Amino acid sequence: ASVAGNITISSAGAGFLITEGVNASMGTSLLQGGTSTVATTLALTQSRIFLQNIGIVGTAGALWVSNISDGVSFKINSTVATDSSKIAYMIVNPA
Q1: In 10 A of CB 82, how many CB atoms?
Q2: How far is residue 86's CA from residue 36's CA, in Å, rounded to a whole number?
Q3: Is the pLDDT confidence value at 32 over 90?
């Protein structure tokens, strides 16, 4: 659906619910050796991909996204080569 104006959530305790799964805009991935490749048709070079560490294993590093392949995948990287943390991501594509 398309909305031409603002979206207002007017009840306390209400919010956005996003289904996770194959090719979903939100999910999790485990780093192995400080990296992880996420296969998804939603990743585009202009995507905004937000990352959050949700399960620190050992020493966690700073995270960044690289190697976005349109409609195929993107790579999550950590500044710590031994980082094996669980990372949550959310993909937002501009209209």
Answers
A1: 13
A2: 10
A3: yes
